[in-house]
Predict the 3D structure of the following.
Amino acid sequence: MEHSEPVSSYEEALRRLDLVARRQKGQVIYVYREESREEFRDEVPLSRLGLPDPLERALEAYGIRGLYRFQADALERYRGGEDLVIVAGTGTGKTEAFTIPLLEDLIGRREAYTKPYAILVYPTKALARDQYIRLRRLAEGHLGFRVAVLDGDTPRDERSRIYSSPPHILVTNPDMIHYGLIHSQQIRRLLSNAKVLVLDEMHVYKGIFGTHVKWVVYRLQRLAGDLRFIGAGATIGNPEELGSKLFGRRPSIVWGPRRRKGEAVHALVSIGSGSRWTLSAAVIAALTKMGLKTLAFVDSQQMAELVARIAGRSYGVRVGIHRAGLPADYRRRVEDEFREGTLKAVVATPTMELGIDLGDLDAVLMVNLPHSFSSYLQRAGRAGRRDNPGLIVTLLGDNPIEAYFTRRPREFFAQSPDPSYIEPSNREVARVHLVALAMQEGLLDKSTLPPELAAVAEEAESLGLVRDVRGKLYPDWGKARQYIEEQGGLRSVGPQVTILEDGKKKIGYREMPAALYDLYPGAIYYHMGKLYLSVKLNLERMVAEVRRLGANVNFYTKPLYTVNVVEILPLESRDLGPLHLVYADVKLVIMVTGYIVREEYTGRKLYVNDYKEPLKWSYYTKAMVTRYPNPGITSPTALISGYHALEHAIIAAAKPVVGASEHGPRRNKLSFRAHSYL
């Protein structure tokens, strides 16, 4: 085990980083230095803003003497009655940009509204509670406005207090609103009083999750009436379009600085012929032994566990794990230890991409190139906050996109934040919210529904979830409740599989279809730093049974699987050159046919195990469908190989375009599959 040798400069850190990479057959190939100061120099003094005296005094007591230009701009536009989307980098003060206008409005209307006046929505419970502490210091500590958190962890007595004596500002999350509107008359009554809805971390609301949130906002608006909207996010390439879709009307855009004050050093590291996982563990160990508090991002839950395991076994470094599917108290303990500095390194999936306060974070490692440049900026923004320099290290392998930027690194840093898209017409999502709205309101007049929800009414009726009586939709309460429960949370892409140790003790969960790729019989499953063998996966009961293994296992497993398109429902089409492109709802069938066993450190194949009967799962998603012409290749082997290469090129190119990872045992937000028609 090596000793810690703190570094005095980032030049020295980069030199050591290159030595570590070369030992693992890689090297540092490019360094980019980023500095952001000019945008923060021109402050508007509080005395020139016309703020109420109590608010001005409170801000001064809080340590704020003036507002940056974009914060003052947000204040003026809010005073003018506009809906806002505030786009500013992590740590630049975007929270104050919407909090100050809300507090000014509260002071002016102290007796003229029902509570809560504002609902602040954060995408996760952890982030909501983190921001709640900041809000309380200003709103409650200095101005006497009560702030409260309502989520699944709120104790019963605190909930009763919130219902009987609502706070001025309510902090919550989309899932709480979604389920509360369905199941709780008290929550419906509480939310119906709101006048302003704030969606913070708005850049997260894209894809399937964003589409869910769009319909939650619509349902809340039907309940509360004419809400004011504010969105705030760090990396949004199309804020006006995204805001219009989420809010149902066009917002005004306030642009702030892209990144926080200070300097960041970005290093791109080629993996070369080495192992990504072994190199990432070596880099984490080296950074922490340089005295740098380090957060590493991976795109797979199991790879988070594997990297932490290698770092501990090979380098003697204690590394925390932060991912979905772990108990909430375990994740909170990791957050607390990391913030306090008793834990120096954490490997996380995107659960730590958001702005949870982690204290002074020195370095960020990205084990994979993120699926979008916006995600890269968000993760990179975690390092060097509070005016400290930050070191951001990214590993590049041989997949087409990473190989491209290995050759053209300057182009990577010249990118702008990519646009965020949601798809209101997604039938799976629309059906959930049609049923939820029917339960929320008791009956629905089909003529009042937006076309996307009306389009799935017949489908919902055929499933027995609603009844159509002369244009009025009534929920079948029993089936509707069961259906909503089976769908899981708003982030879910499928039902949850409960993981039982020895068939009895619940140790976690995994969502479908990801569970199919992680918990197939024979799989090595990593959980909280421990190793388990999956012995049974029951897809009817949605239960996986696992057995604890010893610590000396030196291999891991990967599933062998196929994905087949069994149904195509065209939505729209167009011609592009010789290709006819069809955008469609598609039904996929996944079949896990066995698994491959690989050596833990090198990734070398040890053996393959094939099942007698495959595991199957089907679901609907969106797809772009086309038929490629035969290019005139006469050799069947060459033709199949060419189409296979095209498949991988499409997968790699599609990731940064649509903001999703490939279909398979990494992330499963969207599915990609190229089919050859010979």
Notes: The chain has four domains: 10-33+261-413, 38-255, 427-486, 496-623.
